[in-house]
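WARN  no MSA supplied for this record, continuing single-sequence
INFO  ligand: cytidine-5'-monophosphate
INFO  echoing inputs
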Amino acid sequence: MNLQGKRLVIGMTGGIAAYKVCELVRRLRDEGAAVRVVMTGSAQEFVTPTTMQALSGEPVATDQWGVQGARAASAMPHIDLSRDVDAILIAPCTANFIAKLAHGLADDLLSALALARRLTPPCPLLVAPAMNVEMWNNPATQRNVATIRGDGIEVLGPASGSQACGESGAGRMLEPHELLEDLIAFFQPKALAERRVLITAGPTFEPIDPVRGITNLSSGKMGFALARAAREAGAKVTMVAGPSSLPTPRGVRRIDVLTAREMYDAVMGYVNRADVFVGVAAVADWRVANASAQKLKKNAGAAPPALQFEANPDILAAVAAMPGGPLCVGFAAESENVIAHAQAKRAAKGVAMIVANQAQEVLASEEAEVHLIDAAGVRTLPRASKLEQAREIVAAIARHLG
Ligand code: C5P
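INFO  complex generated
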């Protein structure tokens, strides 16, 4: 659970994207957050407070004078609701509501509580705009968005695409899973703020002929989790990924490749701008030297094809050998003597840190025990999800950067 113990206010204003917030509230609770929903009058034209009460498990606040019929204990819900919360997210946030935030209007409960939130220590306010493309592009809205950004309000999205009104363009509210990922990222420490991180992830695929090839059981989960964790920590992340159907983490630039050589070329194209390089990919050590341009035929009685192999470049070792290159971190999946083999690998490749794990246990799994091996020694992180491990690895990388 990525939001365990977090207390959130979800403010809803009048937009058809309100239906997506029903799903968001469920998912926030699945992640361990306690959610209080506040709705404007217009929001209630799209979704009822009863729906939001059922989903949040809490009474819904709809006006300044009470909470779902009952008078608030202090008759000051705009103050009570914004105290002791970890963040306020307004979703959907209309053009009208952005204008109210920009100008400090407080003529209903939600705008009043946004204005009444504490600035020291700050109660973070995030908004997920949702509106027609012309409303979004209007200079008045753009001015207001710039104003609220300047006031420290976090603007999530909007996305571009087809809209409920039938038009198309910028102004779609982010999907619930995207808002969830952004909110989880918001709460992570920014240990890699502004750092540029280059990551390889997934398996590679070495062709035998146009339809066959050699690959391995790497799922890409660890590399993708690391890309997500680095982005959560504030880094600018580029991920060079071998064939994987996993979704790209939010805010990560992804470059898809097939073979080890393509991965090497892509890495070399970006590495000069990287502060950190993390080789998570399970790169094929050899490629087929005599790959066929045409599909190999199975002729009755004929001998099977004789494949010849040649070595692929070692991407991690090549980056580690670059003078003035980035801080390098490698992974080692070993089937036996995990720590000893990984220590030898750290020395051989000349990298700052190796993350070692048991190959049979880690491939395609959701969880792993890992050992962080660097000049200071070995630190074992007990079995946990790959995302949790990735966050620990990111923290360790940040300490190495100093
Ligand atoms: O040499 P070995 O494959 O055991 O080392 C694993 C580490 O080296 C991983 O970090 C992997 O991403 C990296 N590697 C690489 N290029 C290769 C082979 C491994 O970058 N050709």
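Residues 200, 260, 279-281, 283, 285, 312, 314-316, 330-332, 345 surround cytidine-5'-monophosphate (CB under 6 Å).
INFO  checksum written, moving to next record
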